[in-house]
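Section 3.1: Structural characterization of target chains.
Under the original work plan, the team committed to producing a structural model for every single-chain target entering the pipeline before any wet-lab resources were allocated. The record below documents one such target. The sequence was received from the expression subgroup and is listed exactly as submitted; it comprises 98 residues.
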Amino acid sequence: MPEAPAILARLDAIMRELAELRSEVAAAELQPNLVAAIPDADSDFSPEHLIEITTAVDRFNRPADSLRWMCRKQGLGVKRAGRWLASAPRLARYLNGK
C-alpha cells in the first residue's frame, strides 16, 4: 500500500490538473460569446437577442449587479415585467470595447 505522502502528492497533482482543465474549458466557452455578431444595432433589442441576467452572468462571467447596472446606465438592456433583459450583442460589444 502506498504511503500517505505519496497519495497526497498524487492528489495534489490531480487537483492542479483539474483546475487547469476547468479554466481551459471556461476560456473556450467564453471566447465565442464575446464576439459581436450583429452589425445592425437596431435589431439588438429584438426578442431573439435579449437574455435573462442569469444567462448573461454565465455567458459573460460578470456579477449580476454589474450586468443590471450596465443595462440601466449604459443602455445595454431593457426592463420587462420588473426584470432586466440584456441585449447580448450590445453587451458583447461593450465588454469588447467596441
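Confidence is low (pLDDT under 50) at residues 34-38.
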